[in-house]
């Protein structure tokens, strides 16, 4: 057991915690990072499965994620564009498969008009409300007390249009059924990406990947920090008062001036706080939860879809796999597809045996790209819901009414205890960019608080 004295102790060695640690060290403060897992990276993880390099966690970079791109450049990491040449595939509510080009689903004119109308309303709300303080807007309570499912149907009677628009937020981002989160939460998701239109444009939101994998953002920062990162060390207790903290983990006890909880809110309760956190914190944390998604990786001898003039991109709100993309690694002669099974559909296939689940998922992908999709060389399911130190994906969101009720307090420090993760970000919410932004912002707050604490009283 190590006994360490530091200025700041960080709980969690994901992109947010490691960015905060790196910024604090730049400012001249000493740090220790305690990580429960045997690796750094949090919800980013690049691993080799059956000879194939797979990005098991977060991976994409979009043009609005400028802070992440600045860090990638600083760390010497390069990006490459996602393959998107050729036709995409849409499977409609009637089960009909259609190949198309452009950024508009090949639906009938009525459904297209309704989709355009809903996107325009959401774009306007996202611009008006913004990502920074959605809870403070006059429309906040109204939008936060109706589910996104019901809000869509309040604004359109076209079921296919509602399901398609719901796909971009529910299945694609929050990984919860659209009846389980509010319209305000959906607007925040859109505002955090710049607009709802950005979320509907896969060429924007899924633009680039990092050569070698996104986990390198954490691996390289951890390498700089060296022995200040302690792995296999779940934090069990934080004893705190206004003068500082004593953080007790499996392998180290750290006495410090400040602590950063750089883990998702659903894990805060894994730590015993002494004294307990205030009532407001206890209540708020119970209204935040992660969604559920299976990220499916299928690797083939060649990217056969390209030879058939297909981009590898497919969408269907009604299919088991609602989205599929070409996810081939940079410079790899093999072809990789990635698909997503979200929320209640993930519940259903987890009831199946592993073999039956694989069969059902590959059959769904084959519905987009043909029977060659049925026989990958490598098949792997990323199941973050079963990860002990994550328990869901991709990020935390509030239940109905929670965002406007508690949002204003989610960044508030409790004495020396600060909070930092992509789950709490404005711009870049639930992305690595948001994690980095939160890490930088939290470090800056602590640097300022440390200066104020050091100023002698006149």
UniProtKB/TrEMBL annotation:
<feature type="binding site">
    <location>
        <position position="340"/>
    </location>
    <ligand>
        <name>substrate</name>
    </ligand>
</feature>
<protein>
    <submittedName>
        <fullName>Putrescine oxidase</fullName>
        <ecNumber>1.4.3.10</ecNumber>
    </submittedName>
</protein>
<keyword id="KW-0560">Oxidoreductase</keyword>
<dbReference type="InterPro" id="IPR001613">
    <property type="entry name" value="Flavin_amine_oxidase"/>
</dbReference>
<feature type="domain" description="Amine oxidase">
    <location>
        <begin position="16"/>
        <end position="446"/>
    </location>
</feature>
<dbReference type="InterPro" id="IPR002937">
    <property type="entry name" value="Amino_oxidase"/>
</dbReference>
<comment type="similarity">
    <text>Belongs to the flavin monoamine oxidase family.</text>
</comment>
<dbReference type="InterPro" id="IPR050703">
    <property type="entry name" value="Flavin_MAO"/>
</dbReference>
<feature type="binding site">
    <location>
        <position position="16"/>
    </location>
    <ligand>
        <name>FAD</name>
    </ligand>
</feature>
<dbReference type="Pfam" id="PF01593">
    <property type="entry name" value="Amino_oxidase"/>
</dbReference>
<feature type="binding site">
    <location>
        <begin position="35"/>
        <end position="36"/>
    </location>
    <ligand>
        <name>FAD</name>
    </ligand>
</feature>
<dbReference type="GO" id="GO:0050232">
    <property type="term" value="F:putrescine oxidase activity"/>
</dbReference>
<feature type="binding site">
    <location>
        <position position="235"/>
    </location>
    <ligand>
        <name>FAD</name>
    </ligand>
</feature>
<dbReference type="InterPro" id="IPR036188">
    <property type="entry name" value="FAD/NAD-bd_sf"/>
</dbReference>
